[in-house]
Design a protein that fits this description.
mainly alpha
């Protein structure tokens, strides 16, 4: 697998690994984002299975919660998964198919949400799955646009 990769793919693998490490840090350990485990012995299982409930709550109560919270929750979840949708097609031939890239992004997000629920760090939120998947879609669309531009540019010089 690694032997048949180009230098750019190897670089993107390295970037993707650092991206995943950073993502794990922000999802599980960043105390500035309200992460970290609860007090010892305290069990708090929180989850939201109603689509768009938290998104709506953040928009309706934006004045009380503050714009920083709204931006971090809504746009942060989208932006956090753009690299996933963009880098996956570079490092995997199977992910060049946009649907595969989006599915992998969804499953990475689902794994993170389930881990948050299991280890009581953060909360399982279907809205995060939606927003993260939207980020993977955005990244995959950006990848497609960049590739289209590169191909057009290459044809001009031939």
């Amino acid at each position: 697998m690694i032997r048949n990769t180009t230098k750019n793919q190897k670089l993107c693998w390295l970037i993707f690994i650092f991206y995943l490490i950073g993502l794990m840090y922000f999802m599980f350990f960043a105390e500035s984002l309200g992460r970290g485990s609860t007090a010892e012995g305290e069990i708090l299982k929180s989850y939201n299975l109603v689509p768009f409930l938290e998104i709506k709550r953040f928009i309706v109560y934006r004045e009380i919660l503050g714009m920083r919270a709204v931006i971090l929750n809504i746009f942060g979840n989208i932006v956090a998964f753009i690299p996933c949708g963009f880098l996956l097609p570079v490092i995997s031939r199977r992910c060049k198919i946009m649907a595969n890239s989006i599915l992998v992004g969804f499953f990475i997000s689902l794994l993170i949400e389930m881990t948050q629920l299991a280890f009581n760090v953060g909360s399982f939120d279907v809205d995060d799955l939606i927003l993260n998947t939207l980020g993977a879609v955005t990244g995959a669309v950006l990848y497609t646009a960049v590739q289209s531009y590169r191909i057009k540019k290459k044809k001009r010089y031939l």
